[in-house]
């Protein structure tokens, strides 16, 4: 069985279209219910922070418990989260108010706050699916020996509700994968035990995503051959590549060149110029039918006929 694990936000959905509304709702809640400051003050602080992040994206990150989960420029929602975190963490008055609102945070209070804002304000929105999604999902569902799954950090209710709008047979949701959860005590069973994957001179990805690793390991425990398709590298893509699992990066209008360049160079990586290229990748990529291993040092020949260099 080939399992095509499709990331939800940003891959199946055009998350960049949702960011303005999610940001507006988040700032309204922050100003009125958490920080108790004028909304105009917060809006100005947020815009100033976004400008700083865009000017030097390799210096700013989405962080959880002080560890870098993703670079700020890897996704539209990621930039929003990183900007909120940077804005909140840089103001002692904001930090104090957030700690009072989230006293029993599973992670640090700022991370708990931004997680809360994201899940609270994306859940009620009707997700705008990318145009090719119905056709591509219908094709995947119809293929013998292929199971499409939808990958998300959410619990899955939001995803299932939005997928139902497509009127297709139900697709299994691989939820609560917590790709943002880094376990500093976990020794990674891959990459020669090195927890950091060097991407280029200024970018490294932390592989210590124990919960996400366990989720992927379960999907191939029955002998299936999984492959991951997503729009970002650090969160959903780097770990599968390190595990010997093929990864296709969907190139969007916000995809950084450094992410696409790394995936293009990797023997198990492919960059898709659009979701319409996915069926051909599934049909022609011999890596999808090769048993994967937790060994990134065993390269396999990668089909390049459907790579995009855009």
Q: What would you say this structure looks like, in words?
A:
This protein is an alpha/beta fold. The protein has 2 domains: 2-14 and 128-289, Rossmann fold (3-Layer(aba) Sandwich), CATH 3.40.50; 15-122, no CATH class. The protein has helices at 8-12, 15-35, 39-55, 76-89, 92-101, 109-122, 133-142, 157-164, 210-220, 238-242, 257-265, 278-284, and strands at 2-7, 61-64, 67-71, 146-151, 172-174, 196-198, 204-206, 225-230, 247-250, 269-272. The chain has a 6-stranded parallel sheet with strand order 5-4-1-8-9-10, sandwiched between helices. Strands 2-3 form a two-stranded antiparallel sheet. The chain has a two-stranded antiparallel sheet with strand order 6-7. Helix 8 links the parallel strand 4 and strand 5 (172-174).
CATH H-tier superfamily of the largest domain: HAD superfamily/HAD-like
The strand order across the widest sheet is 5-4-1-8-9-10
CATH topology grouping of the largest domain: Rossmann fold
Query: Whole-number average pLDDT?
Result: 92
- Shape summary: globular
Q: Give the helix level as a range of percent.
A: 40-55%
Q: N- to C-terminal separation?
A: 31 Å
Please indicate the percent range of residues in DSSP E strands (runs of 2 or more): 5-15%
The level-1 CATH class of the largest domain: Alpha Beta
By DSSP (H or I, 4+ residues per run), the number of helices equals 12
CATH architecture of the largest domain: 3-Layer(aba) Sandwich
State the secondary-structure class. Answer: alpha/beta
List SSEs in N-to-C order. Answer: EHHHEEHHHHEHEEEHEHEHEH
For the biggest sheet, the summary is: 6 strands, parallel
Number of separate structural domains: 2
User: What is the total tally of β strands?
Assistant: 10
């Amino acid at each position: 069985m080939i399992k095509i694990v499709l990331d939800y936000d940003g891959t199946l959905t055009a998350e960049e279209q949702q960011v303005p509304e999610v940001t507006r709702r988040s700032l309204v809640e922050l100003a009125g219910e958490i920080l108790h400051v004028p909304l105009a003050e917060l809006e100005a602080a947020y815009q100033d922070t976004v400008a700083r992040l865009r000017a030097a994206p390799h210096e700013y990150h989405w962080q959880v418990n002080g560890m870098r989960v993703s670079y700020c420029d890897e996704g539209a929602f990621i930039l929003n989260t990183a900007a909120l975190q940077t804005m909140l963490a840089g103001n002692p008055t904001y930090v104090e108010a957030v700690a009072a609102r989230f006293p029993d945070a599973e992670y640090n209070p700022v991370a708990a706050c931004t997680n809360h804002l994201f899940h609270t304000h994306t859940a009620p929105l009707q997700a705008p699916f990318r145009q090719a999604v119905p056709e591509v999902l219908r094709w995947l569902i119809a293929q013998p020996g292929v199971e499409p799954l939808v990958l998300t950090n959410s619990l899955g209710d939001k995803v299932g509700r939005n997928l139902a709008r497509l009127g297709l047979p139900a697709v299994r949701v691989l939820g609560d994968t917590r790709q943002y959860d880094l376990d500093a005590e976990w020794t990674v069973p891959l990459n020669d035990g090195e927890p950091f994957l060097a991407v280029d001179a200024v970018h490294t990805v932390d592989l210590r995503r124990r919960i996400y690793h366990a989720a992927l390991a379960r999907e191939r425990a029955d002998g299936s051959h999984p492959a991951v398709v997503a729009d970002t590298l650090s969160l959903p893509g780097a770990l599968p590549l390190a595990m010997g699992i093929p990864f296709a990066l969907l190139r969007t209008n916000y995809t950084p060149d450094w992410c696409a360049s790394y995936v293009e160079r990797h023997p198990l990586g492919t960059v898709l110029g659009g979701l319409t290229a996915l069926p051909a990748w599934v049909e022609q990529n011999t890596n999808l039918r090769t048993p994967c291993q937790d060994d990134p040092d065993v390269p396999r020949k990668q089909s390049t006929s459907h790579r995009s260099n855009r």
